[in-house]
Write a structure and sequence with these properties.
The protein is an alpha/beta fold and 441 residues long. The chain is built from 19 helices and eight strands. It folds into four domains: 2-79, GMP Synthetase, Chain A, domain 3, CATH 3.30.300.180; 120-265, 3-Layer(aba) Sandwich (Rossmann fold), CATH 3.40.50; 271-339, Helicase, Ruva Protein, domain 3; 351-440, DnaA protein, C-terminal DNA-binding domain (Chromosomal Replication Initiator Protein Dnaa, Chain: A, Orthogonal Bundle), CATH 1.10.1750. The strands form two sheets. A five-stranded parallel sheet has the order 5-6-7-4-8, sandwiched between helices. A three-stranded mixed sheet has the order 1-2-3. Helix 1 packs antiparallel against helix 12 (306-323).
Length: 441
C-alpha cells in the first residue's frame, strides 16, 4: 500500500505544481502529506495551522489534481495529521477566517538552500538581514526568473527570525494575497485592521511585487505600508521577476524606494550547483540510491529552473520504482525525453559550405558551379545550391547571387522556385536535395 500511495502522491504533486504558482505551492500545498489510499479515495494530511485554509481556499485545486492524476472518479479528503483513514466520515469543522499570518514552510531554511555563483550574493544578504533585521540592507530586493529560490530565501528569513529573533514579529505575504486582503478590507470597511496587520511588523517579507503594476489602489496602500515600516526601522524584503528599473508600470516613487537598499539578482544555477541541488534533494527525501550519471543527465537537461529540476528527479525516481528498474542515466534519459525533449540544433552554414557540398555531391568544380554556363549538367546543381543557400544561411538574396558569379537576386528566386517545383514532382531530385540538407545540418 505504501508504494502505491507514494506513486499516487508523486503524480498528484506534479499536477499541483502545474496548477499553481511556485510560491503558492511552497507555502500551502507542499506541506500536504499522503496518509491513505483506498481505491480512488485519497486522504491527505495537513498541519493544524494550514488545514482549514487549504481545504477552503485550495480544496477545488487539490480535487482537480487528484482527478487528473488518478481518474475522473477519484476523491480526496484533507485531514489532521492523526485524522481518519479512508472510509471514516470526518467530523464537521468550522470555517474560521484566514490565519493571522502565513506560517513558514519548515523545509525552506538556510540549511536547505544550495549556494552557488548564481545566488551567492542573494543568500549572503538574506542571511545578514535575518541575523540583524533593519540593520543590514533595507529594503532587500531579490529579483530573478521563477523557480530559482527567491521564495525559499523569504521563508528562510522567516524561519530564522521566528526561531532566533528574540520575539520579533515577522510576516510573509504575496502581492496577490496583499491585494485580496486589501480589497476585502475595503468592502468590509475594515481598513484600520488591515493596516495594523501589515504595518505592525518587525520584518515584512513580500513575494512577487511585479504584480503591483497597474493596480493603482493597491500600489497606493503598499506605498504607505512601505513607508510606515521603513520609517520605524522595520525590515522589508521584496522579491520580483525583474529589477526595479524594469517595472515600468509602477510609479517612480515606489521604484526609487525599492532601489534605495540592496538589489540582488539570482540567475540560473551552473551545472555543479544543479548537481548539488539534486544530491541534496535525493538525500533529504530519502529517494534511495540514485546513480550519479542519472543526476548528471537530469542536471544537463534542465538548466534554468530549480523547481523543474527537482520535479524531474522525482519523476525519474517514481518511474524507476513503478517499472522496478535502477535509476541510471539510460532510464533518466528515457523519462526526460518525454518531458523535456532535446531540441535539434540547426547549424547556420555559409554560402561557401553549401557550394562545397553541392560540388562534391554532383561531381563538379567550384569554377563550374559559379560559371555562366547554362548546360543541364551545371544548371541543376547551381539551382540546388542557391536553394540551399537561401534555406540554410542568413545571407540575403543579392549576397547569394553575388557569390554565384555576380548573379542578381531575381536569378536566385528563380532557382529556388525551379528547385521547389522539381523536388515536388521528381523523387530522385527530392532525395538528392534531402541528402544534401541533412549533410549540411
Amino acid at each position: 500500500m505504501t508504494q502505491e500511495l507514494d506513486h499516487a502522491w508523486a503524480r498528484i504533486a506534479a499536477e499541483l505544481r502545474r496548477a499553481v504558482t511556485d510560491s503558492t505551492y511552497a507555502i500551502w500545498l507542499e506541506p500536504l502529506r499522503p496518509v491513505g489510499l483506498d481505491g480512488d479515495a485519497v486522504v491527505l494530511s495537513a498541519p493544524d495551522e494550514l488545514r482549514t485554509w487549504v481545504s477552503d481556499r485550495y480544496g477545488p485545486v487539490v480535487a482537480r489534481a487528484v482527478r487528473a492524476a488518478l481518474g475522473p472518479e477519484a476523491t480526496v479528503e484533507i485531514v489532521a495529521p492523526d485524522g481518519p483513514t479512508p472510509g471514516r466520515r470526518p467530523a464537521e469543522r468550522p470555517r474560521p477566517a484566514a490565519p493571522a499570518a502565513t506560517p513558514f514552510n519548515e523545509r525552506l531554511t538556510f540549511e536547505h538552500f544550495v549556494i552557488g555563483d548564481s545566488n551567492r550574493l542573494a543568500h549572503a544578504a538574506a542571511l545578514a538581514v535575518a541575523e540583524a533585521p533593519g540593520s543590514a540592507y533595507n529594503p532587500l530586493y531579490i529579483c530573478g526568473p521563477p523557480g530559482l529560490g527567491k521564495t525559499h530565501l523569504l521563508h528562510a528569513i522567516g524561519n530564522y527570525v521566528s526561531r532566533f529573533g528574540g520575539g520579533l514579529s515577522v510576516r510573509y505575504t504575496t502581492v496577490e494575497a496583499f491585494t485580496n486582503e486589501f480589497v476585502a478590507a475595503l468592502n468590509r470597511r475594515e481598513t484600520d485592521a488591515f493596516k495594523a496587520r501589515f504595518r505592525h511588523n518587525d520584518v515584512l517579507l513580500i513575494d512577487d511585487v511585479q504584480f503591483l503594476e497597474q493596480k493603482a489602489k493597491t500600489e497606493e496602500e503598499f506605498f504607505h505600508t512601505f513607508n510606515a515600516l521603513y520609517d520605524t526601522g522595520s525590515q522589508l524584503v521584496l522579491t520580483s521577476d525583474r529589477p526595479p528599473r524594469d517595472l515600468a508600470a509602477l510609479e517612480d516613487r515606489l521604484r526609487e524606494r525599492f532601489e534605495a537598499g540592496l538589489v540582488c539578482e539570482v540567475t540560473s544555477p551552473d551545472v555543479a550547483t544543479r548537481l548539488t541541488i539534486l544530491r541534496k534533494r535525493a538525500h533529504h527525501d530519502g529517494l534511495g540510491e540514485v546513480d550519479d550519471e542519472a543526476l548528471a543527465t537530469i542536471a544537463g537537461r534542465i538548466t534554468d529552473n530549480v523547481r523543474a529540476l527537482e520535479g524531474a528527479l522525482v519523476r525519474v525516481v517514481a518511474y524507476a520504482s513503478l517499472e522496478k528498474q535502477p535509476v541510471d542515466a539510460t532510464l533518466a534519459t528515457k523519462v526526460l525525453d518525454r518531458l523535456y525533449p532535446v531540441e535539434r540544433t540547426i547549424v547556420r552554414r555559409t554560402v561557401d559550405d553549401v557550394q562545397a557540398a553541392a560540388c562534391d555531391a554532383f561531381g563538379i568544380t567550384r569554377e563550374e558551379l559559379v560559371s555562366s554556363s547554362r548546360s543541364a549538367r551545371l544548371s541543376w546543381p547551381r539551382q540546388v545550391a542557391m536553394y540551399l543557400a537561401r534555406e540554410l544561411t542568413d545571407q540575403t538574396l543579392p549576397a547569394i547571387g553575388a557569390a554565384f558569379g555576380g548573379r542578381d537576386h531575381t536569378t536566385v528566386l528563380y532557382a529556388c522556385k525551379r528547385t521547389a517545383e522539381r523536388i515536388a514532382s521528381d523523387r530522385e531530385a527530392y532525395e538528392a536535395v534531402q541528402r544534401l540538407t541533412e549533410q549540411l545540418r
